[in-house]
């Protein structure tokens, strides 16, 4: 167990280190850095000015030196300066994180609240009309792009309520903010709930085929007791693992949805930074996302081990 | 609890189904949702292939007079701000979607199969290194990976395909690797080795064909994500550039502004994306049931 933990932690650090190299190299492959973009926009290029800008931003240094500057700063909590606003990257990123976290948590709640019960119903009523309807519904949930779903929701709001639930000024109270965020959260959560529903259904079907379920049935347990006391408890376990996959899935949804709803969170900020080639922001944000995904998966594995004593990890 | 499914049992046992139409009829009865998916996919492919014939306008032709014309007999699905016909743009957009989804999936599968086969069959340090690289690539969500790749390669049709393909590789490599790992220990591989076959030949001729069923299932599932990822990238302005009519970009052009004034600009491209993804997903599910009995639910 201890050895396993050590190994997992080592692999986690290795993955994140590899990620930092990958991101760094990918961003430097880009033909054209921010100085090119700025001077393109200005319409003419003064080579002396451009060289000065590149020197100011440290873009003329060897790539290894640039990498070292970034990583040594990152370890000490210094993320460098954003190119566009020329403020410390920490000040740009940090205030946006709580907004995205609130949105992500709301989406997760939404997806679990709808996904798990509907998945169970679908499995218990396998191959009945209700199962077909739910399966088609979950498959269509996976097929709708979340930005389009967001646009449709906006359209309905305009038509029936006459206003757009969009983030303009920072809302005064937490409740107001949550209410405002619940609309994009529903757009992201719908897709995720479809994923959870499908996985819950197949996990539940798997459990329902086990011998001990037949035993429970033959000793005369009521269908409700079999489904909920015997089956669901075991079927929910693999669903916990889904939260790891969910983390990655949610972030993808957040990126487009924050753009649609104009939510000033980190996900939309990443897109803006990518468009502006704002390296310090992009590389730190992408690292942040990688850390979230990797740590979420790690925690899920740990939780799984605690919840299911049958699982023993060798070495 | 469950009744015996005679059709499926017979099919599994290798019973011959009479060919032609009766086979099609059988599949439709057995997999109604999959058949519906197949129909959607066929329509989608036909629209892409015959775009020049079925489109009623040049998708890039602008006409200031018909700016934001509502749907009607001339502009079937309306016109956008520049007076371009939405229907014709959607039909031509199918081409872009098809090119990106098939291109990215094929490229991603090709690379993923090579990497997965190598990693699973050779094992040892090759496997170790490949698995760590896949770990790294999987630490990023598909869209973020494609976003960074697309940004680093620059916006073009080709680069969008490459960006999405790279993001798809780890998934495919993982599945191929795990099926290779179990195939490697099978008696027929041992037999081939005993006859003096070279390792490369065993891997390509004996192991690879046996990974085909999970690969087909997986590839169909990736088609849908490739379409969605392309749409998202183009929506964010980092995908397929002008003048190609991409469904995702049609939505970003029309997004917030026209939600009140021209809802057809928001509705129809989104329906096109959702329907094509829905079709490939339905088809993928049915294929999984058919080809991968272990996953049968």
Short overview:
Chain A has 315 residues and is mainly alpha-helical.
Structure description:
- The complex is a heterodimer of chains A (315) and B (297).
- Chain A has 13 helices and no strands.
- Chain A has helices at 2-29, 34-42, 47-57, 63-75, 89-93, 97-124, 129-143, 146-161, 174-208, 211-218, 223-261, 266-276, 279-307.
- In chain A, helix 8 packs across helix 9, helix 10 (211-218) packs across helix 11 and helix 11 packs across helix 12 (266-276).
- With 297 residues, chain B is mainly α.
- Chain B is built from 13 helices and no strands.
- Chain B has helices at 6-12, 21-30, 32-49, 51-54, 86-122, 124-138, 142-153, 157-184, 187-194, 199-210, 212-235, 247-261, 264-291.
- In chain B, helix 5 runs antiparallel to helix 6.
- The radius of gyration of chain B is 23 Å and the shape is elongated.
- The chains are: A mainly alpha (315), B mainly alpha (297).
- At the A-B interface, helix 1, helix 7, helix 8, helix 9 and helix 11 of A face helix 6, helix 7, helix 11, helix 12 and helix 13 of B.
